[in-house]
Inverse folding.
């Protein structure tokens, strides 16, 4: 089943959306931006429904921040503002759709179902060669073994590391950059934790582990070039 992160501080709105989508997807509810960030560190979501006015910040700013880290993340803006300028700001921040309060539950359900269907029909392979296949929309990774591609189970952090490096093929990425982009500025993690997670990732990639190279004293890069 598809997963949605609802970032909304209203209990009433949460109840309405849960009721509208109960048989469509699994919904995780966050009442603040900081709680939403905690959820996004631990897992990935097919779609985010994001209110603009939240207790600890502006939803549009958070939308832009999410898109900086993952330009393929589907986001629906949910707000009581109906002006054209507000909608333009929402789409400029990277939103896929804009739902005004109050909303009709059937319309909300139809829009969500249409977007989720489109995501499933768009594989969006960000990288594929004779060793690995990475699918960002479906959050899957496969490696080539025994003359076929087989699934590899990665944690959310491991998948984010892999896709971040693969998106920047041949570019050296500093450990500090990975810390900020994968874990976020507000989460305190030791720099060596990056090495630990990359090491675990490479073990899981098995035959494709050679694609991630260590750059001594700096960080890592994703490359197809042989040493």
């Amino acid at each position: 089943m598809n997963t949605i992160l609802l970032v909304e501080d209203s209990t009433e709105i949460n109840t309405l959306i849960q009721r509208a989508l109960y048989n469509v997807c699994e919904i995780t509810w966050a009442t603040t931006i900081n709680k939403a960030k905690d959820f996004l560190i631990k897992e990935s979501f097919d779609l985010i429904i994001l209110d603009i006015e939240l207790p600890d910040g502006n939803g549009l700013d958070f939308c832009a921040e999410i898109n900086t880290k993952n330009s393929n993340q589907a986001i629906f803006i949910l707000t009581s503002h109906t002006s054209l300028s507000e909608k333009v700001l929402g789409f400029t921040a990277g939103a896929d759709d804009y739902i005004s309060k109050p909303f009709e539950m059937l319309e909300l359900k139809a829009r969500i179902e249409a977007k989720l269907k489109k995501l499933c029909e768009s594989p969006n392979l960000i990288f594929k060669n004779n060793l690995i296949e990475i699918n960002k929309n479906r959050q899957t990774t496969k490696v080539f073994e025994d003359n076929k591609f087989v699934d590899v189970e990665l944690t959310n952090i491991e998948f984010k590391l892999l896709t971040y490096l693969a998106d920047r093929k041949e570019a050296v990425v500093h450990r500090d950059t990975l810390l900020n982009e994968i874990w976020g500025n507000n989460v305190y993690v030791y720099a060596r934790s990056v090495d630990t997670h990359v090491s675990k990732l490479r073990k899981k990639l098995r035959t494709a582990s050679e694609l991630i190279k260590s750059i001594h004293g700096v960080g890592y890069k994703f490359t197809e070039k042989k040493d």
